[in-house]
Amino acid sequence: xxxxxxxxxxxxxxxxxxxxxxxxxxxxxxxxxxxxxxxxxxxxxxxxxxxxxxxxxxxxxxxxxxxxxxxxxxxxxxxxxxxxxxxxxxxxxxxxxxxxxxxxxxxxxxxxxxxxxxxxxxxxxxxxxxxxxxxxxxxxxxxxxxxxxxxxxxxxxxxxxxxxxxxxxxxxxxxx
Amino acid sequence: xxxxxxxxxxxxxxxxxxxxxxxxxxxxxxxxxxxxxxxxxxxxxxxxxxxxxxxxxxxxxxxxxxxxxxxxxxxxxxxxxxxxxxxxxxxxxxxxxxxxxxxxxxxxxxxxxxxxxxxxxxxxxxxxxxxxxxxxxxxxxxxxxxxxxxxxxxxxxxxxxxxxxxxxxxxxxxxxxxxxxxxxxxxxxxxxxxxxxxxxxxxxxxxxxxxxxxxxxxxxxxxxxxxxxxxxxxxxxxxxxxxxxxxxxxxxxxxxxxxxxxxxxxxxxxxxxxxxxxxxxxxxxxxxxxxxxxxxxxxxxxxxxxxxxxxxxxxxxxx
Lengths: 176, 319
Fold this sequence. Notes:
Chain A contains four helices and ten strands.
């Protein structure tokens, strides 16, 4: 019951966010080149790109434009409930017209993990770029950290999902 | 009691399953093994940068941040929360913390200062080589211990499940045996009662004496073939009718009613239970004739039942 309420709460929050920025989600178009330091590189089976090499690269401002949502959850790596803000994986994939089944995520520390595209659902994982309202440094598992709403969905409290919660994320390859 | 015991065991079982259902740790072993890897990559980056390779400074900073992050993750890991007070481990941890904290200003500072401080940083990193290794090995130890612990818990859980199942099985078996026994007893009882009833009704049906059963209101409830022959009324005509009006001559009815009332209010008996008594009865045709009657009284399920055994003694008196 409690979980259901939490989930409903998350959906309501999401709804409010979507309503406020609704236009941006559907605003398809050519992906503009980044103006600032590149935080994330997406390659592979995607329709939208902005580099010669056929990748989609994002700076902080571009991520901000992808209707970030907030997940409040505790994690096994932090103390207490944390407030993460970031782009939903599903939003990112939709924006890029990604056609694949597997996401190969790579971290700055050479950690790599495969995330099924089926994980990318509304109310599912986000690519967090803020924690407690502050950008995250590399020393603090930043700048990007894949976060699932562990508290809201008990199924996310599993070792498999923890392994997919990649921090210091730098690139995603969309595999068919 | 068995149900209570079983419920208790199940409660315990479900609680344990709940605990196992959500994981509290990620792959700690991976983090532990990566600690040394990240350490050596940092040492390598320092070495590369100190060979005057300007491009390598950015990489050095990244390597430092990665090692720093890994160290913090491991230090915080739930696995270490169970760590016993281990002096050697504590000292190693403090040493690594000290070196990392001291290096932060250098890493974050201007490039020139960082390059100048590289030999010192290298020395510091060399100094924590053993502590890092100690902690990594200790971590593996703890991890192995935790795995063992977890396995023991799962084994205990399975045994507990088996026990619960066994208890349930025993309880159900006992219940089934009791139910079968009760069923057989009920069937035997029903058979016996049926037999008794059959015998009884045979006796009543074939009796030469009239047998009349009446209730407290004097209403006829049962009436046998001999009674039909003596009184002329058929069963269909008399059952449910007041006995006094059908079978007792008019001038005796007041005495009969008074006797019944006296018995029901005070329990005083004149005729009931007095053995054979002679009195006058009335035939369907209105003919009066002498009878010998014995009346017994019973209470069946809180209700009064009067049973009269009665024979026509016209012939005997004539003789």
